[in-house]
Amino acid sequence: MDITLRWFGKKHDSVKLEYIKQIPGVTGVVSSLHDVPAGEAWKLEDILALKNEVEAAGLKLVGIESVNIHEDIKIGLPTREKYIENYKISLENLGKADVHLVCYNFMPIFDWTRTDLAKELEDGSYVLAYDENIIKDIKPEKMFERVEKESAGFILPGWEPNRRDEIMDLFEKYKGVTAEKRMENLKYFLDAIMPVCEKYQIKMAIHPDDPAWSVFGLPRIVTSEKSLEEIAALNDSIYNGFTLCTGSLGSNLKNNLPEIIRNPKIKDRIHFVHFRNIKYECDGVFHESSHLSSDGDFDMYEIAKALYDIGFDGVLRPDHGRMIWGEEARPGYGLYDRALGVAYFNGLWEAIRKSDKSK
Ligand code: DNO
Ligand code: MN
């Protein structure tokens, strides 16, 4: 297994590769070409430059998070053809650079959605939080104002103020695009790229929608055990797989995470794991917590145990952490709490491994 951290690149991340390297057990990072807009083809030289930078710090570039999907592919517009071709070029170049894991998501318009990027907890730490009561009545126009106000100097991914017109236009384009249609569009995309993935052995790992239900009236399709089964059935290739993000999938409390991990239709397709915990205040209102089981609502031991039992040997990373010890970093992506998450996972894993009587 490769234990990694997400790294946003020197230009966009205050966390240094050298510090990541100091976390016990971490072998690499997942990163991305953050300046290349969704839909454009990635150049081999840019991928190699990123890879060299990571390797110079003694780490591996274990995968890409994310190669984002152009909205026209998600909506199913005729213009998707050119964006799919570009995606295939990106995959081909990643394959040539010896990168074999790609995380992506199929969320309409926005990545994960939160109502607060810096909610203060009793112990003085800051976390990302979500309140459905705020989201359910808010019009997208108003969301822009909110995001600017609550952003703690950062912007929720997808809500950049310069995207305002584009986003309002996208809401129009999504009208009438049902969940069924979006699933068909995902199949169309997977069918087109799988031959390239087979050729270069690139594992595609779709990230669950976060929160795991529809927001702003936009249908979301990666939300439950059933939807993961449906996605697995869209294309037989083993390279059609998942990012098992515990915090995102688990935001819907109906999702039983250890059960999903053990599901025979899903388990072999888990290529990437995001390991994190959240704490519910009441239905639809949650905040992210430290990784420890007793700080949140998930039994992290049972999650690790399920991964051990299925023989998980892919890539894992801690996900959003709290902002602690006065650190100033991108919300969710500070060094300290994610490092604690790794240390905790290492402890769980060693204990599970050593108590396995069959070994
Ligand atoms: C949330 C995070 C996400 C994720 C992207 C994947 O749980 O892990 O930002 O990286 O949605 O495309
Ligand atoms: Mn995640």
From TrEMBL:
Catalytic activity: D-mannonate = 2-dehydro-3-deoxy-D-gluconate + H2O
Keyword Manganese part of the UniProt annotation: yes
Alphabetical keyword list: Iron, Lyase, Manganese
EC number: 4.2.1.8
Record has Repeat as a keyword: no
Single Gene Ontology MF annotation: manganese ion binding
Function (record text): Catalyzes the dehydration of D-mannonate.
Homology family: Belongs to the mannonate dehydratase family.
Name of the protein: Mannonate dehydratase
Biological source species: Herbinix hemicellulosilytica
